[in-house]
Hints:
Elements: E1 3-7, H1 18-30, E2 33-37, H2 54-70, E3 75-77, H3 81-96, H4 98-108, E4 117-119, H5 121-136, E5 144-147, H6 157-160, H7 170-177, E6 181-182, H8 201-217, E7 222-225, H9 228-236, H10 238-245, E8 253-255, H11 256-263, H12 268-271, H13 282-285, H14 291-301
Parallel strand pairs: 1-2, 1-3, 3-4, 5-6, 5-7, 7-8
Amino acid sequence: MEKIIGFYPGCSLEGTAREYNESVFSLAKLFNIKLEPVPDWNCCGATAAHNISKKLSLSLPARILSQAETAGMKSLLVPCAACYNRLMVTQHELFENEELKSEVEEIMGMGLNSPIRVLNVIQFIQEYIYPGLQEKLSSPFGKKVACYYGCLLIRPHDVLNFDRTEDPQTMDEAMKMIGAESIDWPFKTECCGAGFSVSRTDLVAKLSGKIIKDACDRGAEAIIVACPMCHSNLDMRRNTIDRLLGYKTEIPVLYITQAIGLACGLSVKQTGIQRHIVRVDWQRLNSCLPEKMIKEEEDIHG
């Protein structure tokens, strides 16, 4: 029986993180899950709105939540860590402060009656993918990986109440379930440069370079993420990072949905890994890869 849950893509998944969107939908389809987008959704404000106006930073996510509620959605998958953080924090602040909630509702011209269950991508995987994962696992990811959570997926803990703030384990557990060896490293929640990706690429290179270097030094063969901004900084800014480090790094950065999808037999195109700046040499990463997938990867990259 097909399961239906609400889905908020945010701006990144329909733009720079298109491959993340593709892998989420492909994985959901494989597990007989229908993702229903929030009608007429808008930008959540991400890292910019709160610099302009507190009420704007709350009104943008609140409108998304109101739209989802009006559509009858009880659960809402939000794959982007920044969007997830904004929706969760907004919902917490508004339902803890009735006066503020009323002001935001007046700004929106819409109401909020009750909190919606907002799921990040790891919670979605735990609840909807885990039950049928082992029977669909066809190409175990038998390599060392560094699970990178970033800043926004687990903080603030009092609001998100998701995993441990200093040494989170949920992504590591998911990767172990598909056959990977998750390394123990201290950079799981270090900042990658976040919203400075455009304005201060030098800072991004410095911060992200430390993450890349430490993962490589510890023998990781791939970095696993669950945030479009983290992926962008670690993947798209790699040339700048390499110049700062003084040598070329080839470690790829995969979204957790891509890694799980590939391990379950989804193709290169279904998971979108051909879109990455740093090439994901899946044949090198996984010697158990089916011949048809190896051929597809070779055709895409020549």
